[in-house]
Request: fold
Amino acid sequence: MRIPFTQVDAFSGEPFGGNPAAVMPLTTWLDDAVLQRIAEENNLSETAFIVPADGGEADFELRWFTPTSEVALCGHATLASGHVVLESGTVLTTVRFRTRQAGILDVARADSGYTLALPAWAP
Reply:
């Protein structure tokens, strides 16, 4: 199986700086066990998987996996996913992701990079 991916160093403009995340655009969702194995193989703190949304309120669906489990939210991998989409030749200035546990997350172009508003959850 060949799936293209991009490794993005979030929070940095320098190679090997910041916080790395893999972003893997898919056309449809793979089985959860396959997503988990891919994240394990990548061996980064997070691997983000994005799939075009089927209409509605979002442009893409987004899920995050560590090498050992799916997680509810990951800020740096969300920014990395926004970077991959917004630098892909799209005319979008904001990309909207629908997530399974964190709701809708928007990544927007900004003067010096990207912005992202994260949900505030009670402890």
